[in-house]
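Please complete every field before forwarding. Incomplete forms are returned to the sender.

SECTION A: IDENTIFIERS
Entry label: holo-139
Bound molecule: flavin mononucleotide
Molecule representation: SMILES string

SECTION B: INPUTS
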Amino acid sequence: MNRVIYASRGGNTEKLAGAIARGAGARAVPADQFQLSDTADILFVGASIYAGAIDGRLRDFLKDLQPSQVGSVAVFGTAAGPKSALPEIKSILEPKGIPVLEEAFQCRGSFLVANRGRPNDEDLKRAEAFARKLCGGQS
Ligand SMILES: Cc1cc2nc3c(=O)[nH]c(=O)nc-3n(C[C@H](O)[C@H](O)[C@H](O)COP(=O)(O)O)c2cc1C
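SECTION C: PREDICTED COMPLEX
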């Protein structure tokens, strides 16, 4: 089973999580609702960038995540600029032996007057296709 979790302060990454969930045939849930007993083949992790880093609660969640809970992690997210959460998430999970896929989905998210309307319909379509492809096109 594949699962989709995310942290989103303003709703942009939450929108993307909905599209990723459609592609993965899963439900999108906030990271703090993921239970210690939950497991996933692919865990899709949605993260935005705030002052150059991921949300602190998401970082705490990832620090608690155990290798026995996940096969691999796929990262998706939004930011005002080009920065992706992938390097930070890799730096937390890989030392614990949790594989993080190099293939990630990143798009611009609205911030103040920048990137109005993003993620837009096209972003959501691409996000859904990304998840479907990683899940083997079976969902
Ligand atoms: C307090 C704050 C700090 C931010 N810092 C950055 C940043 O350092 N780099 C960046 O590219 N975007 C930055 N952004 C923009 C967010 O990453 C962007 O709006 C993202 O889509 C927010 O996702 P969310 O709506 O899921 O919270 C910042 C936004 C906020 C609110």
